[in-house]
Amino acid sequence: xxxxxxxxxxxxxxxxxxRTAVEAWARLTSTAPVSRIRATVRAGRDRMRNTLLGYxxxxxxxxxxxxAGCGTGALSVEAAVRGxxxxxxxxSPTLVMLAGQRLPTSLxxxxxxxxxxxxxxxxxxxxxxVVAMDSxxxxxxxxxxxxxxxxxxxxxxxxxxxxxxxxxxLTLMWCAGRLFPRRDRAPAIEPLSERALRHRLALEPxxxxxxxxxxxxxxxxFYTSQAMELxxx
Length: 233
Ligand SMILES: C[S@@+](CC[C@H](N)C(=O)[O-])C[C@H]1O[C@@H](n2cnc3c(N)ncnc32)[C@H](O)[C@@H]1O
Prior knowledge:
- By secondary structure, this protein is of the alpha/beta class.
- The protein is 39% helix and 23% strand.
- The chain has 8 helices and 7 strands; from the N terminus they run H-H-H-E-H-E-H-E-E-H-E-H-H-E-E.
- It has helices at residues 4-20, 22-28, 36-54, 74-81, 93-101, 141-152, 168-177, 194-203, and strands at 64-68, 85-90, 111-116, 127-132, 155-163, 210-220, 223-232.
- It has a 7-stranded mixed beta sheet.
- Strand 2 (85-90), helix 5 and strand 3 (111-116) form a beta-alpha-beta unit.
- The structure holds S-adenosylmethionine.
């Protein structure tokens, strides 16, 4: 069961990523020219994707992976090229369609099964690894921990995710964002303090058999996000 806040935020994110921002998102995740500001975001996201992919075993042959909130599918493709059997799920049917159109002609032994839906859905099955790149950054800490607890019941080895670290700049941007009328702005990013997040993870009973592994903050112009790995003990 997810919270009312989670469900409300999920609805806002679906509208945002499937309608309001779909063209900007399609462009940002392509190789088409973008503004200097967006180029810093693209560069940061490329570094983040490589970081998360680096947390996975080099040989992904026959390994199963959930790309939770796959967007236009770049991470799924790179994992599949390394042999992974990927299930890629996203709330936005338009982004999932775009991901399908962007598939390279060959994935070698890898495979991607695209789905439209909620990453929290247990019917997606169980996986060796779950990766959620920037798809939890809009949820409140309680909801993030609940989603991770849900993943822990379905992941055999690791859960790799990102969160928006609470930095003075992000806090300032968060406050500034609240000055704009709701219809004009993206669903707010929820900055989390690493200390508070670790504390909440340690208190979550479902994560008792898991430990925090590697973590890395990536800052590139207007992009700041932090990778974190949960490893099954
Ligand atoms: C910032 S984008 C990142 C997309 C992709 N992971 C990437 O890095 O390119 C966040 C994505 O998470 C998806 N998302 C958010 N909440 C979700 C949920 N509960 N279930 C599935 N997808 C979700 C959004 O639709 C959006 O495509």
